[in-house]
Amino acid sequence: MLIRALLLLALTSQLAVAQPYKWIDAQGRTHYGDRPPADAKARPVTAAINTYSGTPVLSAAGKPVSTAVQRESLAPQNQKLALVIYTTPTCGYCVQAKAHMGRRGIPYTERDVTLSESYEREFRQKGGRGVPLIVAGSRTLNGYSEESLEALLKGAGY
Questions:
Q1: Residue 59 reports pLDDT greater than 60
Q2: Residue spans in the chain of domains classed CATH 3.40.30.10
């Protein structure tokens, strides 16, 4: 009986999922929700922007390493690559990544993809599947783990 109840709950919960929409208000702010205002020119959102951590690639020492960092050579000696982090306001991993770089005194540029369609477009063009997306030159890191970020930072010359 319990299994039937759980199955019924699982099937009915699929029906309750609302279509998310994106719209821009009169002040130019981007909003997301399942009920846009009647006067808004809302468009359906087909891909959600969520936190993505992915499956880590392990180094010979057994520690996670970003595949982007693994494929690329290190930054030229004494040259540090500029860092850009694509975020959303509700992303806990974004907060952790920014705090990590802050503790190390590493400068970065933050681009909140909910504030600007151009930031969202850049995010997608750089292979963003979820936030945070951290970019150093041609290297990218989707998601956040301390080990993967450290590998990216080392490759960027920090």
A1: no
A2: 50-155
On whether the CB atoms of residues 64 and 57 are closer than 8 A, the answer is yes
Cβ atoms of residues 132 and 97 within 8 Å:
yes
The token pair that represents 78 in the structure block: 């004494």
Closest to 93 measured CA to CA, from 39, 137, 41, 129: 129
Class of the CATH domain delimited by 50-155? alpha beta
Least confident of 3-17, 32-46, 113-127: 3-17
Which residues, at least 6 apart from 41, have a Cβ–Cβ distance to it below 8 Å?
A: 23, 24
Which token pair is 121?
A: 């477009």
User: Which residue carries 């860092």 as its tokens?
Assistant: 83
The mean pLDDT of 48-71, rounded to a whole number, is 45
Number of residues that make up the chain: 158
Which tens digits make up the pLDDT trace of 116-153? Answer: 899 999 999 999 989 999 999 889 999 999 999 999 99
Interatomic CA distance for residues 79 and 26, integer angstroms: 43
